[in-house]
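May I ask for whichever protein you like with its backbone structure tokens?
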Amino acid sequence: MKKKSALLIAFFSVISFSNAQNITWLPSPKIADRIYQTYLGSDGTLHYSAGSNIRMIQEDNDSLLPPPQWKKLKFSLFRYDQKFLMKDTLPLKFGNIPRNYFNTIMTDKKIRLIYSYTSGDKLTCRSDNFDLTGKFIDVTVLDEAAGLPDFEVKKYYKLIFSDDKKTIAVIYKSGVVAYNEKMEKIWRIDADMNGYISGAVTTDGNFSRLLKKIKTIMLLLLIQKA
């Protein structure tokens, strides 16, 4: 009887150990491994930050990364309590491989990864949306263009945000589209933006642009939209 019990215990131990090996553990990343962090804000209970192990933007006009670098990219959502003691970390994953990464923001109680990518002959600017626990919710397509030459992908889209990140202006070659914090389109204008240098947008949707028309002349236009 003792031998049978010993065998049963040993057999059960082997089964338990084997099952444990099938569990894939996702260890919490260390802050030092995500040195490029962006503070997203607070919902009144927790503070949120998004971080990666690779600098995702060198300059505003830079393409994100050469393809091989994507295998090395580790991108996470960090959550801190009110004393800024870390509570947990959660993985964030892009729905597609970006051509340009613009920003990660928190609006309307959602974490939003905003970037552009190409699919066939289309270039799309999109927002991958997550809840505050890092769970994927849905995708918002901000704008897209067909038949865009590959060499123009890098300079096609520019995004500017209001100071509180609640309004976004998407600038492309032939116009501007503005979105509110819920990523709802609030206005669109058609205009030649090839000479665009810089701009600003306010929370209520006022947009200004600086255009270069001649080498020595810069024109400032203010477009007011509700």
DSSP finds two helices and 15 strands in the chain.
